[in-house]
Every structure is written in C-alpha cells, then in structure tokens.
Design brief:
With about 170 residues, the chain is mostly beta strands. Helix content is about 0%, strand content about 50%. About 15% of the residues are buried.
Length: about 170
C-alpha cells in the first residue's frame, strides 16, 4: 500500500488526502466538512454504506450496550460494558441512574441521545407499561451524559436497574 499525503489545497484552506499519484481520496473544506471521500478502487463511501440521496450522513459519535445491574455501588465506574464505541465507563449514580462517560468529548452539548432498555418481564395484553431511557435534567455535558432507566405504567413510574441498557449519541 502506498503512503497517503495530506496537504493544503489552493488558497481556500481546503485539505486533501491524496495517494502518491495525486488522486484525491478525501477532500475537506475549511469548515471541516468532507466533500469527497473514496475507498480503495475509487468506491464512494456513501455508496459503500448504501446511503442514497443528497442528505448528509452523520455518524454515531458514541454508543454503549451495558448491564445496569452490575457494579459495586453508587458513584462507582465499574458497570459491565458489553460493547461500546467512544465510551470509557459507566458510573452508577443510584437505582436506574447512570452516567455514560465518553472517551473523547463531544465538540459541544448540542448532540442527540437515544436509548432503550431490555424488558426482561412480559405483561398481559392489557398491560400498558413502558420501560425506557430518559436524559437526566441538566446533565448534558461534553464529556458525559446522565441517563435514567424508567419503568412507567398507568398508575406510577419508577427508576429501575436494567439488565440491558443501550445508548447512542449523534452529532
């Protein structure tokens, strides 16, 4: 494999990654937006992930699958992470209350968090309960996000430690 060369391109402060023969592999404008990206053999990255249309593609910046019933107590960062990307640890803040700590911080707090939990119990057809993740009030930070695992039914709601917690962050 040949070395790639990164260099400024012209006077518009664009940057290019080229192979030694001068073929553009990645072109980034002065705003940091990648305007051209190709894989080996000239394949387009957008096509490689089966994305069509003109809408931009935004990558998941952090994700985690963890067991919220493990750990040795409130305030500890020893929850069992089953798999993750850009997540360094999970802090147990109490029953159903977790902080997801990022390995690399987000650029700002204007990101979106989505999450869900694994429901290990099954109700009847008339059961109108729900289990899910909610963001803790005033807890969005560049280095972490605090979330609550909630159980809600027709008459009440509570926080619960859940066996399977799944969180993804997009920006």
């Amino acid at each position: 494999m040949s070395d790639l060369i990164i260099k400024p391109s012209g006077t518009s402060a664009n940057f290019k990654v080229q192979n030694p023969s001068g073929t553009d592999k990645i072109v980034m404008n002065s705003s940091g937006t990648i305007t051209t990206a190709t894989l080996g053999s000239g394949a387009d990255i957008k096509a490689a992930i089966n994305a069509s249309g003109d809408a931009p593609i935004y990558a998941c910046r952090a994700w985690v699958n963890f067991n919220g019933t493990t750990g040795s107590g409130t305030g500890q960062s020893d929850m069992t992470i089953n798999a993750s990307g850009n997540v360094s640890s999970i802090t147990d803040n109490g029953t159903g209350d977790y902080t997801v700590n990022f390995t690399t911080s987000m650029p700002d707090t204007n990101y979106s968090t989505v999450g869900m939990v694994l429901n290990n119990t099954y109700g009847t057809a008339s059961d109108i309960s729900f289990r899910g993740i909610q963001t803790h009030q005033n807890s969005v930070a560049t280095g972490s996000i605090r979330i609550l695992a909630k159980y809600v039914n027709a008459g009440s709601s509570s926080q619960e430690d859940e066996h399977g917690c799944f969180v993804a962050v997009f920006r």
